[in-house]
Automatic annotation (TrEMBL):
PANTHER family on file: BCDNA.GH08860, TREHALOSE-6-PHOSPHATE SYNTHASE
Family membership noted in the UniProt record: Belongs to the glycosyltransferase 20 family.
Protein name (Swiss-Prot/TrEMBL): Trehalose-6-phosphate synthase
Record-linked InterPro entries: Glyco_trans_20
GO biological process, any: trehalose biosynthetic process
One GO MF term attached to the UniProt entry: alpha,alpha-trehalose-phosphate synthase (UDP-forming) activity
Source species: Mesorhizobium tamadayense
Length: 596
């Protein structure tokens, strides 16, 4: 072998040794990485949820921002874990006007009714998981019969998992607080439906007195100084402040289920500062959309001596900070009730039989409380427009409107009811025949089970609110369609339109446009229906109600942790000041340290 040949051989040997060493190194480090990842991995599917929730919390704490909970599969188990691990020993108290179960007297018997309320369908599964206490107005005619000596009853009936604590109101209180200030004042004030709000001194007094009564009840039900109180809706704007004064350590999460108007509209309310002051007693205020959260912050900025921390989505007022966030509400997933329902084909047959609907007509449905914000008359207009523009559809389409009576003693609601009856009758006379009624209007309460059966029977579901915080009917319809068929027509003015982008989005004020969209829905093929429905079902599954509640609870956990940290630091500050140094308030100190 020549000298060059020997050198070449040595180079080859060294190179192959180097490559082998590199291969061994890569394989060992891969092995290590795998093992260290495996060691840190949760070892059961249950732990996956809590690990994911912790990951979200860490991210969220790092950013000081609200949670992007997209990584978590939200379930009752996730919620339980958050409560156990991040808010140990916290007692959850829900407060709402409407109770989840109403006991009525009917023919000498006690009848149980689950009210037609988006709030109830969202909060009920959450309260079951939290095993908490739900405080609500006892409005059923047999409500007093079934409670114990402390006005409590365990629910759900048959499988109790939480306590319903009923609060009794006099007729005057109910009239002034619920019908008056809440529903003739705040409701039209917050919805763009062109119904003028009415404000009366006597209603305001009743509203204040009832809020006080609920505050007393919360304090009475609290087992310690630090409950988590979930205050629901526009019936209780003063309640957060009243609770804060008596339970300063409580976490108070207030959720405003309806839109919040712009500050110009809000300024109409004669008690606007009191309302804002009351709400700012909350630790967190939630809205369905960022738009409504922004409107609220603008109102605070305009009417209150406060500091707005826009980057943190927080308001500092009276020495306290309140987070103002969007948390889009949703429904449980999977819907438990679906297990008890017949197949889609059977539901179709049963619903058509029950309401006398022709077997070969396309079935459009609307399901809601009889409320002027829901755009029921606008739907009828669109149907008429469809018949005028496309006469071939007469006889081919039936519109079934389920409208649960609501706030029926108020003039605006009475008037709407009469208008709906009149219009439906007119349409039936004009376009119907002996065997064909284009509009079937059923102004009665329906059980959730019946409502889900109707969703499953529908070819098209119309949600055409003139203005709506979220609208859970849209999400319920989607959840009910495990056959991936059916078309959703959805108002652009409902919060749900921000999420359910595969719905056919309509402007309910534009009858011509809505009628053309109805035609598009009526003629949509099964493949396109499936494509749209599948996507919407994924959205509702991922953004379910456990995510809604979980995001708020994680935010609450962060606040509590920060509060604890602040207390410890404040103590050491006091120590320092005893030694003669200046005490810099916590907020300024955090700012100086570069924290937001
Ligand atoms: O839509 C707002 C809302 O408060 C819902 O949360 C609830 O479903 C409904 O209105 C309440 O209606 P009622 O006045 O019948 O309780």
């Amino acid at each position: 072998m020549t000298q060059y040949g020997a050198e070449f051989l040595w180079v080859l040997i060294l190179a192959s040794l180097g490559l082998s060493a590199l291969a061994i190194f890569i394989s060992v480090s891969r092995h290590r990485r795998y093992h260290s990842r495996a060691a840190s991995m949760p070892n059961s599917s249950d732990d996956v949820a809590s690990e994911a929730a912790r990951k979200v919390l860490r991210e969220f704490e790092k950013n000081g921002q609200s949670v992007d909970a997209a990584l978590v599969t939200w379930s009752p188990e996730t919620l339980r874990k958050i409560l156990a691990e991040d808010l140990p020993d916290a007692q959850v108290i829900v407060v709402s006007n409407r109770e989840p179960y109403i006991h009525n007297e009917k023919n000498g018997e006690v009848e149980l009714v689950v009210p037609a309320s988006g709030l109830v369908s969202a909060l009920e599964p959450i309260t079951r998981v939290c095993a908490g206490t739900w405080i609500a107005y006892g409005g059923g005619s047999a409500d007093r019969v079934v409670v114990d000596g402390d006005d409590r009853v365990q629910v759900p009936p048959g499988n109790p998992s939480y306590t319903l604590r009923r609060v009794w109101l006099t007729d005057e209180q109910y009239q002034g607080y619920y019908l008056g200030f809440a529903n003739e004042g705040l409701w039209p004030l917050c919805h763009i439906a062109f119904t003028r709000p009415t404000f009366r001194d006597s209603d305001w007094e009743a509203y204040e007195a009832v809020n006080r009564k609920f505050a007393d009840t919360v304090v009475a039900e609290a087992r310690n100084e630090r409950p988590i109180v979930l205050v629901q809706d526009y019936h209780f704007a003063l309640l957060p402040r009243m609770i804060r004064e008596r339970l300063p350590e409580a976490i108070i999460i207030t959720f405003w289920h309806i839109p919040w108007p712009n500050s110009e509209v809000f300024s109409i309310c004669p008690w606007r500062e009191r309302i804002l002051d009351g709400l700012l007693g909350s630790s967190i205020i939630g809205f369905h959309t960022q738009f409504h959260a922004n409107n609220f912050t603008e109102s605070v900025d305009r009417f209150m001596e406060s500091r707005i921390e826009r980057a943190d989505a927080a308001v500092s007022y009276g020495g306290q900070t309140t987070l103002v966030h969007a948390y889009p509400i949703s429904i449980e997933w999977p819907v438990e009730l679906l297990k008890t329902l017949p197949s889609v084909a059977e539901s179709q047959a049963r619903v058509r039989e029950r309401f006398g609907i022709l077997a070969d007509a396309k079935l459009c449905v609307g399901v809601e409380r009889l409320d002027y914000t829901k755009g029921i008359l606008d739907r009828f207009h669109a149907l008429e427009e469809l018949f005028i523009r496309h006469p071939e559809t007469i006889g081919q389409v039936v519109f079934l409107q389920i409208a649960a009576p609501s706030r029926g003693t108020l003039p605006a609601y009475k008037h709407l009811h009469e208008e709906c009856l009149r219009f439906a009758e007119e349409l039936n006379e004009r376009y119907g025949s002996e065997t064909y009624r284009p509009v079937v209007l059923v102004a009665e309460h329906h059980s959730q089970k019946n409502v889900y059966e109707i969703y499953r029977a529908a070819d098209i579901c119309l949600v055409t609110s003139l203005h709506d915080g979220m609208n859970l009917v849209a999400k319920e319809f989607v959840a009910s369609r495990d056959d991936e068929q059916g078309v959703l027509l959805l108002s652009t003015f409902a919060g749900a339109a921000r999420e359910l982008l595969e719905a056919l989005i309509v402007n309910p004020y534009d009858a011509a446009m809505m009628s053309e969209t109805m035609l598009q829905a009526l003629t949509m093929g099964p493949d396109e229906q499936r494509e749209r429905m599948r996507r919407m079902r994924e959205i509702v599954r991922d953004n379910n109600v456990y995510r809604w509640a979980g995001s708020m609870l994680l935010d609450a956990a962060r606040l509590r942790k920060r509060g604890e940290l602040d207390r410890v630091t404040a103590l050491s500050d006091r120590q320092v000041s005893l030694n003669g140094d200046n005490v810099v308030p916590m907020f300024e100190r955090r700012q100086a340290a570069g924290y937001r």
